Q: What sequence folds into this?
């Protein structure tokens, strides 16, 4: 008992020290002076409350950090660029799987909102998680939107979590068609986890706009719920297997061929498939598993490649 109390005390003390250190390291001037290996070790401990093992990574989250540092295929930059990836998708599986593109601009002032439809979606090409969904153009606060988009364009996303593929993307704004599924309100995200070109499991993101927030439900390849959570709670309900599930698997394996790990995202709209995005580091490798054993299970599915040599 005494040993457990002592361990908890030291872990709490270490966590506090790391949080202070991370705040110092996050200073705009200091940030770029910090080696990525050190940055990831500190951020990992704060997020997962465990030391990051980069010498012999075992868990899914640990291996994602290793891949950030040592798996640097130049093609990855094209695959995370929200404009350039359209070329790869079109070449690999055909342009019918692309969400219709309305426009591309280098800066906010170039956008002619009068020519846009009443509903649309804006995204930066060079970050993750930034999106503006317009359901009614007459309700736009243009001053607020201008500030938001300018903040996007100035954002150097690589330095946030050291996700290498984002480092050399040209910042642009794209506009895509606004789409909904049969609910008429939002799109469910179907996300397929691909390990060396093989889909091992998938998950569904739903209830993004609910008061309780996002739910994430994992499914195995027989569309049976998997008994774990990753950061977000599950919905407690079983989503019907998508009609295009087999096609999603087939396309995922085509798009992920020869890639150590990648996630392929889909939307299903009236029985038709669209690619959402291609993601190399879900949650940037900082989202805990409950129970933790599944962090090890998914980690065992990642076979690390040799370290990248330029």
A:
């Amino acid at each position: 008992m005494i040993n457990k109390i002592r361990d908890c005390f030291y872990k709490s003390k270490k966590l506090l020290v790391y949080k202070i250190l991370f705040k110092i390291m996050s200073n705009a001037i200091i940030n770029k002076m910090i080696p990525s290996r050190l940055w990831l070790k500190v951020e990992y401990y704060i997020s997962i409350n465990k030391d990051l093992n980069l010498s012999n990574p075992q868990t899914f989250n640990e291996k994602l950090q290793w891949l950030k540092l040592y798996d640097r295929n130049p093609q990855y930059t094209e695959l995370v660029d929200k404009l350039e990836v359209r070329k790869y998708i079109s070449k690999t599986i055909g342009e019918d799987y692309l969400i219709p593109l309305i426009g591309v601009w280098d800066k906010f002032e170039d956008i002619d909102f009068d020519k846009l439809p009443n509903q649309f979606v804006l995204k930066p090409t060079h970050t993750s998680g930034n999106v503006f969904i317009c359901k009614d153009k007459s309700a736009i606060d243009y001053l607020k939107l201008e500030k938001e988009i300018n903040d996007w364009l100035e954002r150097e996303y690589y330095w946030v979590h050291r996700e290498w593929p984002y480092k050399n993307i040209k910042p642009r704004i794209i506009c895509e068609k606004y789409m909904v599924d049969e609910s008429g309100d939002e799109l469910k995200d179907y996300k397929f986890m691909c390990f060396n070109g093989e889909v091992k499991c998938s998950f569904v993101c739903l209830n993004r706009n609910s008061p309780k927030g996002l739910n994430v439900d994992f499914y195995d390849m027989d569309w049976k719920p998997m008994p774990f959570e990753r950061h977000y709670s599950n919905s407690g309900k079983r989503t019907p297997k998508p009609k295009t599930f087999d096609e999603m698997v087939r396309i995922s394996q085509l798009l992920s061929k020869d890639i150590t790990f990648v996630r392929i995202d889909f939307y299903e709209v009236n029985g038709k498939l669209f690619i959402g995005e291609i993601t190399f580091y879900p949650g940037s490798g900082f989202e805990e598993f409950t129970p933790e054993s599944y962090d090890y299970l998914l980690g065992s599915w990642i076979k690390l490649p040799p370290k990248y040599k330029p």
In short: Residues 230 and 289 are 4 Å apart (CA to CA). Residues 98-179 form one domain.
